[in-house]
Model the fold of this input.
Amino acid sequence: MRRIAVTVNGERRQAEVEPRQLLVYFLREQLGLTGTTVGCDTSSCGSCTVLLGGESVKSCTVLAVQADGAEVTTIEGLAQDGELHPVQRAFHEQHALQCGYCTPGMVMATVGLLAEQPSPSEADIRLALEGNICRCTGYHNIVKAVQAAAEA
Ligand code: FES
Ligand code: FES
Done:
């Protein structure tokens, strides 16, 4: 076991983890942050996307020990003082979800995209989200939501 300290959603969390523990299971099972979902476990679907050091990553491709000393933001960390984050609001207003399973990953990937590229073109958005799969195929409204968030 290894002891790690990770700042998650602004709060320093310490835990003992196995060296092979994936970040997504550290978040979900050890910290109880189940907003980050697991769609595939094999880095294909993007539903597990979180921000690590401000950059979006698929948390099933990162070991928890690799996040030692870093800052992680999950979907639970976006809303502030009961107010949705602008990207969450845009997904809500543009009806950019159906079952919602992919939504946390889509939202986190969008937050990561807009931090790097505040005014992405539609092609940029589609390229940035190509690693995030929506089984309900709601891509059209998802792109509209990202555009709305960029303009917010
Ligand atoms: S669960 Fe991580 S990419 Fe699918
Ligand atoms: S809204 Fe159902 S998987 Fe995307």
Q: What stands out?
A: The chain has five helices and five strands. The beta strands are 2-8, 11-17, 49-52, 55-58, 71-73. Residues 97-103, 134-136, 138 surround FE2/S2 (inorganic) cluster (ligand 2) (CB under 6 Å). Helices lie at 23-30, 86-93, 103-116, 122-128, 139-151.
